[in-house]
Amino acid sequence: MCYIRSMKKIFIVISLLITLLCISCDPQWVIDSRSTSVSLNDSVSPNTESVVISETVQETSPATIQLGDNEQIKVQELENEVQAHDNFIANLNDYLKCVYSGFASNDNYESKFTAFSIKYNDKFYLITAGHCVHYNYNGLDTGKYTYFKFMANFTNEYIYPELLIYDNDFIGNNDYAVFFTKELTNGLNTNSLFNKMPSTYTLGCFKNNINVVKEYNAQDYDTESGCPIVNIDGEVVAIMTGYFTDIDIVLNAIDNIK
């Protein structure tokens, strides 16, 4: 009898141990660390080796910033400026087609320089710095050159325009020369608001091995005399001379040609 009772006790203890072991190994029973209570989680996969307790995160909408009138104007100005620069880059090849490599000579001297064409009063003119036609500065006087030829970017042919008028007052910034030929078929537009332009650029000539496009700097000697100084819309506002000659001076000279 004692033996049977002992066996019953052992059997009961073993049964309890097996029951506890099964409960601890059942993946459907997980501990919620936030409440320390046992709960049934039906979403746990039977093959899950470890249980990750997830928390619900409440999504919040991003904060909105209300701009005042002044701030909205500044944002619009920046957007317009970005668009203007995009347009400048998109049209750059067309602008550069109006830039020329120039050559001039007489019996004693010769010179290489840059020029550009403009459209004015439904005609096309070739423009450069006046000292490229007749250099007279720092004790050197080349005399007026008598032979001229020009070649545009993206071409391999020279044109031989007629010199209409020039002024080589380098110090007084009246430094320009105007040529004409019927062979000119394109040209840059002009704008007389040079001193009000926030951004201006010089356009160069491939053949003269100078910067094709560069932000204007009067003291920049990597830019050549005769280059056009243009605004962000690609309009000529001045001639590069070592300083600059306002395009208005050139247009007035054209108006006074007889």
Structure commentary:
With 258 residues, the protein is of the alpha+beta class. The protein has a domain at 92-255: Beta Barrel (Thrombin, subunit H), CATH 2.40.10. The chain has helices spanning 2-25, 69-90, 92-96, 247-255; strands at 29-32, 37-40, 99-105, 110-120, 123-128, 134-137, 140-144, 147-152, 158-159, 162-169, 174-180, 200-203, 213-215, 228-231, 236-240, 244-246. The protein has a 7-stranded antiparallel beta sheet with strand order 9-8-3-4-5-11-10, with helices on one face. A hairpin with a 2-residue loop joins strand 4 (110-120) and strand 5.
Write a concise keyword list for the protein shown above.
alpha+beta, Thrombin, subunit H, 16 strands, 23% helix, disordered N terminus
Question: What's the arrangement of secondary structure elements?
Answer:
Blueprint: H1 2-25, E1 29-32, E2 37-40, H2 69-90, H3 92-96, E3 99-105, E4 110-120, E5 123-128, E6 134-137, E7 140-144, E8 147-152, E9 158-159, E10 162-169, E11 174-180, E12 200-203, E13 213-215, E14 228-231, E15 236-240, E16 244-246, H4 247-255
